[in-house]
Amino acid sequence: MKFLVCISNVPDTTTKITFTPDNKEFNKAGVQFVINPWDEYALTRAIELKEAAGSGTVTVLNVGEADTEPNIRKALAIGADDAIRVNAHPRDAFFVAQQIAHIAKEGGYDVILMGKESIDYNGFQVHGMVGELLGIPTVAPAMKLDMNGNTATLEREIEGGKEIVEVQTPFVASCQQPMCEPRIPNMRGIMTARTKPLKVVEPVGDAPRTAVAEYALPPKKEGVKLIPAESAGELIRLLRQEAKVI
Amino acid sequence: MSVLVVVECDGGEVKKSSLEVATYGSQVAQMLGTTATAVAVGEATEASLAQLGEQGISKVLYDAEPRLKDFVNGAYTKLIAAAAQQEDAKVLVLANSNIGAAVGSRLSVRLGASLATNVVELPQISGDQFVVKRGAFSGKALANVVLTGERKILAVKKNSIEAQHEAGKTAQVQSFSAQLTDADFADAPKQVVMQEQAGGVLLPEADKVVSGGRGMKGPENWHLIEELAKALGAATACSKPVSDVDWRPHHEHVGQTGITVSPNLYIACGISGAIQHLAGVNSSKVIVVINKDPEAPFFKAADYGIVGDVFDVLPKLTQAVKELS
User: Fold this and answer.
1) Which of A239, A241, A244 has the highest number of chain B CBs within 10 A, making it the mutation to test binding with B?
2) pTM for this prediction
3) How far is Cα A22 from Cα A10, in angstroms, rounded to an integer?
4) Which strand (E) or helix (H) includes residue A37?
5) How far apart are CA B286 and CA A224, in angstroms?
6) Do A164 and B192 touch (CB under 8 A)?
7) Residue B274 neighbours by CB distance under 10 Å
8) In which order are the strands placed within the sheet that holds A225-226?
9) Closest chain A residue by Cα to residue B308
10) A93-121: per-residue pLDDT in tens?
11) Cβ–Cβ below 8 Å for B256 and A243
12) d(CA A45, CA A146)
């Protein structure tokens, strides 16, 4: 089984978000970048399934410029076999999806996994676009994935419950917890990651279909209104009469 | 040229988030000088669909194929694409739900459309320029996005627009068939399992949420959260550490890597307010924080706060809500 796991390079979850002075780009200065937390579920589950089968490969794919390589190496240290970087700024979901679909097709991958969404752009779009570009099923978001030969059984979250879905390879799934316990690299992994192949390819496909004109921060809160604990009931009155939410 | 709204139904009724989406779609149609048609997916009664007139929908297309009751990505995508072709829809509006995102992303490729998810406001349209505001960076920022494709698909975040109810207006319900074949149901679910909802309110759809953190000390104290939620008609939720130690199920975890909620009222009980938790709730309209630590970072993001012990405060709040009604 050939797994293709798509990872994004995103600001660490504790990052305070700021933008360049023209508000057109995220300000990367001093920001630590990590593997998108949702993608870690996809990566770990692919490695677990490969190990359980005793055969197969896990290839990591990232669309990004050279500064994403430390996190690609981290994915290799966690246990992926090799990696591909599409040398481009990930401009929009459609652009990224085209790169993934192209590589998936060329490499003949059986299972294409990624996180539910990225914690920076929160698009929740790439999985479906890849599935449609390749003409294969998409299961999103998946909370559980088991393989039996070429048949996959997935639990897909729906509002208020879950669907149990069975699909044949090839397919795309976007992953979320509680699919697995994401792994962290060990020393042996870190050492071997240095020598694993990382191929850099140039982007293909059509122009993006969306463009960010401007970023903004949400309006600031006015400050908290504190109510003494002994007259807690007063809060309910305020929520009804002042805030008008109950 | 028209606006097509995708309406999700469950148990015969139109979901609350879809009433919001229908309102959004009719308002976009007005801006464009055209009408809004809906295509319904899921199990719906004709009466509930006709009622979409109250949200400004003129016509509803409905395929009564029984296998469409549960979500099937392949079949839903084909059905909505066929409706979009028939209506010559230039703008499609969906809910930013698990169904909306799954279908919207496939449709954007099939229809050659620009897609924006997490949309929080009506678009700004001037001439050919079509710009939407969407949440980004897990709610820590907003982005104005230009949609350059001739067709546009917008997935609207829940509670971003209030559903309108123009009493007495009805929509015309038309049966519709997309000539679905067995192949379109290849990814049909083998089984659907619904969760038990504390208080009967679905977290992603809720407009009030009562949430507990490690300050609740253990699952045996959750009745305090549930009693307040029940009195308010709210859904219950929890922070990540709580679901990690299995005090509460995963589907109640709100935060950056859990469910993102944007209710009108979010009450956080014994949650200190880690930045990852805030990311999942900071687009709530009103945030109330109850914590005995006055230095808890959550107070900085709150509108109302009580510095006190949740075990004293929660019963008082529940009592006060009961006295209201």
Assistant:
1) A239
2) 0.94
3) 21
4) helix A37-53
5) 11
6) yes
7) 18
8) A225-226, B304-307, B286-291, B265-269, B208-212, B235-238
9) A229
10) 999 999 999 999 999 999 999 999 999 98
11) no
12) 9
